[in-house]
Amino acid sequence: MRVRLLWITVCVLLVAMPGLAQDRMSDASASGVPIGRPESQIVTQVGGPITFWGDRPSFDAAFPGLPCEDWQDFSNVLLGCDAPANNGTSCPGGYNAGDILAGLEIDCTQNSGPGLGGLVIVPAGFDGNPSITFGSNFFVDNTIVNLNPAVEAIGLDIQCHFGSPSVNVDVFDGGGVLVASTASACANAGTFLGISSNAPGGVGSIVINDPSGVSVETTDDVCFGGDPVPVTLQSIDVN
């Protein structure tokens, strides 16, 4: 009887905490209930004129006409892919070279490299996901969005699966310097976050991190562009 109760307890824990049952999103089964689209954000300014945007209409009005990557050229399947992913890479059964907008790259912090399956395609309808999304595959990993060249602004929907309702987002300029951080709400249905910079370094990359380490973070409708503020050259008189 004691053994049976222990087995039941283990099964309940695995259902309640999917991160215990598998290390990667691509190994998971569809489950869960959408937790809505919370909008609250807590902003921490590290340095530099960075602005965070909590709703897409306001962001779009400030930065109209930006090119957007919606991952709709990807196969609508739950599939692990190698990191990094950009315009020149491909994932067998998932996407082809050229399917990702030039200038955008998705990577991860711990499982980047060939044969590791560090990224995941999450199909529409999976765990309350409204459309195809793309990001880190491992629950303990973080999603990196690289922009080359750096841009003035980026806006995207962030999805969290099987984990925390919020994430930390670190913003780096084109030289790799951390310029700002924010805590953003996150949901499996997606929560918008916009970032713009008035600094010469622009926005070069962002890192999306679930501090609990039990959530997979993916992205959708990644809109980016605009030239960063040019560096002002100052003349120096030499006597």
Give a description of the structure.
This protein has 239 residues and is mainly beta. Helices cover 9% and strands 35% of the residues. It has 2 helices and 14 strands. The protein has helices at residues 2-16, 56-62; strands spanning 41-45, 50-53, 68-69, 79-81, 104-108, 119-122, 133-136, 143-151, 153-161, 166-172, 178-185, 191-197, 203-209, 216-225. Strands 2, 3, 4, 6, 7, 9, 12 and 14 form an 8-stranded antiparallel beta sheet that branches. A hairpin with a 5-residue loop joins strand 10 and strand 11 (178-185).
What is the percent of helical residues?
under 10%
Computed Rg: 19 Å
Biggest sheet details = 8 strands, antiparallel
Low-confidence runs (pLDDT<50, min 5 residues)? Answer: 1-22, 30-43
- The number of E-state strands comes to 14
How much strand? 35-45%
Oligomer: single chain
User: From N to C, what is the helix and strand string?
Assistant: HEEHEEEEEEEEEEEE
Please give a handful of descriptors for the protein shown.
mainly beta, Jelly Rolls, six-stranded antiparallel beta sheet, 2 helices, 14 strands, 35% strand, disordered N terminus
